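S1.2 Input.
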Amino acid sequence: MNWSNEAKLAGLLHDLGKFGDLFQARLRGEESGLDHWSAGAWVALEHKCAAAALAIQGHHIGLQSLAHADLKRLNPKWLAEHPQSLRMTAPDTQTLKNCFTDDSLTLPHVRQPMLGNSLNATVSTMLDVRMLFSTLVDADYLDTEAHFEGDISGKCYRPSGPGLDAANALKSVLSNIEQTQAKTTASLDVQVVRRELLKACLQSAERDSGLFTLTAPTGSGKTLAMLAFALAHAAKHGLERVILVIPYLTITEQTARIYRDILAPKFGAEFVLEHHSMAGVGKENFQQDNEGDAGQPSHAERRRRLLAENWDAPLIVTTNVQLLESLFSNRPSACRKLHRLQRTVILFDEAQTLPAQLAVPTLAALSHLTASYGSSVVFATATQPAFSHLDKTVMETKAPGWQPREILPNPAALFAPMKRVKFDWGSPDTLVTWDDLAEQLTQLPQVLCIVNLKRHAKSLWKKLDDPATLHLSTNLCTAHRQNVLTTVLKRLAANETVRLVATQCVEAGVDLDFPAVMRAWGPLDAIIQAAGRCNREGRRSQLGQLRIFAPDDVGYPTDSYKQATQIAQMIFRRHGASGMKLDDPAFVTTYYRELYDLAGTANSKESKEILKVIETGNFPEVARLYRLIKQDAINVLVPYTPQQVLFKSLRAQADDTGLTAVWMRNARPLTVSLYRPKDADPIWDALLPVPVAGWKQREQNDWFIYAVPEHYHPQLGLVPPGTLNTWIG
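S1.3 Output.
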């Protein structure tokens, strides 16, 4: 549908209230506490443009509600008792409309409004409203920015980000793949699979846009193959950008670095945009830096932040939280980038991590993007979630269904040649003590052991009490984790003794290649990911050994993780070791079907609740309910000993200038994320909040400095006494 006239109407009316005398007094500093948006929203309603009315009403306070009763409250006679205790800028809308006409302004005729006459709220119609809202908010922000960047000669608009140039970008990616393949030490079978995967991706890129799946084994070169698909697909259909969506922050940073190394030399630093909570973009409250000269961000840094605010870049690497929660948000800052999802290839890596309890509204929104906005969506993973059975349920939300096409003509054919591991399935009913497990590990000179909880990793590491044993978890800051991985890789390459005890943080995006791996019973996809760290390149003379065990100290990071583990164990009891065909995509699909049926994905409490609220058209409540991560987290700058110079420098900068985008980016190597502790938790005694730049008396509650150096263990990372419940698993 062409909604350009309604968008134009929203742009013309969004500041209608600024014609009022009271607003003119506000500009002189004589008034405050004014509502300059509701009058324009009411006029939009008079023109039957409810979507425009919502966008206008929300461009400062966020999208509200499209319920008929709530829209009626935009009537000026209702606003005498204003919900935000504000005053209108003029006594009536007619006065404002007269000023509008006196300025020779006219409103376009909207023949077919976006929402029509029914105002029925669905996932699709609410996303349409957010799209219109996105264009209005972005245009308003850009215009305001141009005003403040301008001078006596007028406004100064920033240059747009670079275009995609998909065909030439594809050439660079293919050239890099060819160079990498020429130097690889992987086995011939692995090399063949990687070539076949790339070939299939390039061939499928010729197909019509829409929904796709890419089911490819670990170690098959999926990271660059799916980028090649996206660029070839964009070149074929004239699409405008590529967005890669990743569940884990560590992989987001790593993948963005890979893409930048390939594309930035030819297309410039602005071609790849990395956007997530640790990328230094910050919240909308931090848009004013007010830094001193010494702390001023560079022009390139400031430009990067501006482009990130509205995703004005051809290739964006972001997180599940950043993209999916924006699709259901009501906030101007989160929704501002949504119009960039039009005519875009959206790649979801490790798609099995999408929250099953939110699957139905998520799939409905993504299918609407492909059907109405000319985009393509790809779910890529070695363990493809069985979402196709939700097709009918998705259609019941009034959205298009979910019937994606597989990019690979025969995914199973690529899994068989990638068989690099022999599985040793320990019964889930035979429990192993940490002492017994430590004894088994000491018999293996090179081994990775993955457990489900950080306290498990700590206990096992202590039992081994061996300088050849290293520890890895997200309680180590990024710099610390990188140092551990570098040590592991060197020891593996030199054929030295090395044992690594890790949590599941090592299971995705970490290119380790151990001859033996031991894995605590967990979800089937986690076990498959663990297998991807064993004989990864397939160049060993014998198959790698993956042993699955059940620790007697039973524990899981979440209830859903526990439930998925129990389904995996149930399937093992049913089929036995010989029936655990993890290299068969159909077998994995069966696992997911049983998991989703047990979890009640289509009828989960969360899904029912959010779909019910969507029917009411309540944007703030939908945003509150659609949360991928239920527990709030904080970022903590930690005193990692080998980086004490950087730590002390950042602490001094925090005291001098406060929290800035530059500071956040520089702090990334020394940052640990924790679940927000309870108010009475003693850890707060060690946490110093970083003040907001330019607001020395104003504290924020997301970034802290850890002030007790002895709590940062040289092997275990941040270990606050008595606060293990704050660890993110």
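S1.4 Remarks. The longest helix spans residues 123-149.
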